[in-house]
Amino acid sequence: MPQGLRVSKTFLLNRGDPSLNRSDLFFSQQNMNLLCRDESCSVYQMKNETGDGTATYYEVYPGIGVMYNDFHMECCPSRKFENNTHTFAIHHCREGRVEWEVSNGAYLYLASGDIMLDSSATENNHCSFPVSHYHGITVTISVPEAVEGLGDLLSLFSIDLEQIEQQFTLKTRPFIMHGNSVPDHVISELYQAPENIRLEYLRVKVLELLVTLKTVDPTVLGVERPYFYKTQVEKVKAIMSFMTNEPDRHFTMEELSEKFDISTSALKQCFKGVYGIAIYTYMRNYRMDLAASLLTQTDEPITMIAGKVGYTNTSKFSEAFKKIKGKTPLEYRKIKI
């Protein structure tokens, strides 16, 4: 989540105001409001002109929390925090995509199925959602508080939190691994917590996750993700906006490269890095989604809709639409009415 994902940066908060729950204080700093609370969890919401999102937060142990993140928005307010806490977090992206602004104006991307570990020692200032949605889990760990409150329990399972940080060299850069690993299996089970024993279940699974992290060889499971610099990312986003504003037109890579002053190779690599798919695949999907919307929300002739999404030949449009949506435009319109 935008700033909820950065709870690892500021999990230890000023407790001077006894009227404020510390999680309430943190989320209020992220422009998120408390929606509801019961004895085990709190639900916070953020809204702006690009959409909304919720974070469902469980404090499973002193200093250790689990957040379920559900966001349908593109961007959110950014807040820079002082790195005055010793924390790290484990993030899992189940659906969607997360853009992280890291140090020196560079960007890193978390894709569906990725697990990322990061520390308050590194500077992740801001994140957003390039495909306008994100669903995932964040486990936050305040090392001093967890050690103080759970020392005996951590020792029982031979869990050394500082050793985990060192193992993944979190004080230098975030660590990413993708699927098919023991930690991935454990994290997937966090989504299946039985409602009647959810808090107890999360406590067990968080310990299991920390134990299994010790078995990971970072040199084997680590995934090298390229960093993209701000100028590149801004140009790619401008290109996406330019193309989606004119879906009836088809642009070559060379035309886009010249217009936005970016090499074709950098354009291809950065666009896929930001949006997760190739530029032409993105536009094909966008055109078919737009056509589907027009088919169900207007009475416009299929020939006119085809023209609006860049097809002068209705037969070719029908063929392309069926390939993506599984039905011809006429069949789709009849079913959706």
UniProtKB/TrEMBL annotation:
Pfam families, per the entry: HTH_18 (PF12833)
InterPro entries the record matches: Homeodomain-like_sf (IPR009057), HTH_AraC (IPR018060), PchR_regulatory_protein (IPR053142), Tscrpt_reg_AraC-type_HTH (IPR020449)
HTH araC/xylS-type domain boundaries: 237-335
SMART domains assigned: HTH_ARAC
A GO MF label: DNA-binding transcription factor activity
Recorded superkingdom: Bacteria
Signal peptide, first to last residue: none
The keyword DNA-binding appears for this protein: yes
Keywords from the UniProt entry: DNA-binding, Transcription, Transcription regulation
Protein name per Swiss-Prot or TrEMBL: Helix-turn-helix transcriptional regulator
